[in-house]
Amino acid sequence: MAGRHKELTAEDGKSCPNKKTMNKLTIALQKSGRLHEDSVKLLKECGIDISNGLNKLKIEAENFPLEVFFFRDDDIPQYVEEGVADIGIVGENVLVEKQSEVTVVEPLGFGKCRLSLAVPRQADYTGINWLNGKRIATSYKNLLQQYLNSQQIQAEIHEISGSVEIAPGIGLADAICDLVSSGSTLFANGLKEAEIIFKSEAVLIAHRELSAEKQHLLNKLLFRIKAVKKSKHNKYILLNAPNEKLDVICRILPGMKSPTILPLAEPGWSSVHSVVHEDKFWEIIEQLKAEGAQGILVVPIEKMIV
Ligand code: ATP
Ligand code: MG
Q1: For 65-110, what is each residue's pLDDT tens digit?
Q2: What string of DSSP letters covers 34-74?
Q3: Residue to probe by mutation, ligand 1, list 35, 72, 200, most atoms within 8 Å of CB
Q4: Cα–Cα distance, 152 to 128 (Å, whole number)
Q5: Which ligand is nearest to the CA of 36?
Q6: Among 86, 81, 71, 5, which Cα is nearest to 39's?
Q7: pLDDT above 70 as % of the chain
Q8: CA angle, corner 155, sides to 150 and 161, nearest 5?
Q9: How distant, in Å, are the alpha carbons of 13, 20, 85, 195 from that of 9?
Q10: Which of 29, 32, 34 to mutate to test the pocket of ligand 1 (most atoms within 8 A of CB)?
Q11: % helix, strand, coil for the chain, step of 5
């Protein structure tokens, strides 16, 4: 257990089984690092007020029965498994590596990265067999071992806890297995990505046996999270169209139920309002323009409840 988080430990949780939080849900978030900001932002977008928590290890939400604990991401799966926190947000990479017994409730769409094998740029890497008999440095020994087994590769795994990317440069390993998002860290260390072994994003996890009361609170939170997630993939669109084109424009813009049509002050014209999914967004705009739509406005949606 890392010394920098002495204030809250799994032992504390076991000796005092959430007595003070019986009617509250407790959530474990990363204290600082790549998931911290997006995790806090998600709670805020769900209307949960945790504004007074700067630099604290524990914050109580003002307007929702939720208490937030801040931990190292490595500790979150274990704490949720043991019930120190009821739910948590963690990368799937950490969750699977730790092999914790928790329920995965919902993927959250942020913290996207991949766990990849990388080799020195000048290596004549032709395929996975290159790794046979090699030394691979990683912080993800379980995920790597599973992958090597599945590929029938025999390699020596050197487990190190940080700065994995420098291992080949200092002669500690022939290859590494580490998290990658843009690939710039690999490039800066003279490495190239060879194989993607696991794709990850942040997920909401829960203790396996929540009380009915806590499950009810989790359902309420999840309802909000889904509304926030959905809104991010959709845009509200407003446009003006000549009345004779309304039929064809409504077919292009199906909306949540059907588009809203309001008459403009100018005779023969209407304003059409609808919702479009980001995947089809540009395609739809082109079709609308081709059919005579004018003054097209696109507005972000804050929450979407369907
Ligand atoms: P902690 O101090 O909490 O242990 P950490 O240094 O282990 O933090 P971070 O680097 O903050 O972890 O990454 C947290 C998580 O963010 C990762 O486990 C992963 O799920 C996700 N992530 C997204 N992109 C990347 C990336 N490019 N490199 C590393 N992690 C990433
Ligand atoms: Mg960590």
Answers
A1: 999 999 999 999 999 999 999 999 999 999 999 999 999 999 999 9
A2: TTHHHHHHHHHHTT---TT-TT-SEEE-SSSSEEEEEE-GG
A3: 35
A4: 10
A5: 1
A6: 71
A7: 92
A8: 100
A9: 7, 16, 11, 37
A10: 34
A11: 35, 30, 35
Amino acid identity of residue 28, one-letter, is A
Angle, nearest 10°, between helix axes 36-45 and 212-232? 100
Residue nearest to atom 14 of ligand 1 (CA): 34
Residue partners of 27: CB distance under 8 A and separation at least 6? 43, 66, 67, 68, 69, 85, 86, 87, 88, 89
Residue linked to tokens 């487990």: 159
DSSP string, 275-296: EEEGGGHHHHHHHHHHTT-EEE
pLDDT tens digits, one per residue of 120-150: 999 999 999 999 999 999 999 999 999 999 9
Task: Of 4, 2, 111, 3, give the one whose Cα is nearest residue 55.
Answer: 4
> Where do runs of H (alpha helix) occur along the chain?
10-15, 36-45, 76-82, 92-98, 141-150, 184-188, 212-232, 246-252, 281-290
* CA 208 – CA 233 distance, rounded (Å): 30
**Contact of 119 with 234, CB cutoff 8 Å:** no
Taking the model in full, what pTM does it have? 0.86
Distance CA(207)–CA(46), nearest Å, equals: 21
Residues with CB under 6 A from ligand 1: 30, 33-35, 72-74, 91, 93-94, 111, 113, 179, 181, 200
pLDDT tens digits, 4-25: 334 444 444 444 444 456 789 9
Task: Note the Cα 179 to chain centre separation in Å.
Answer: 15
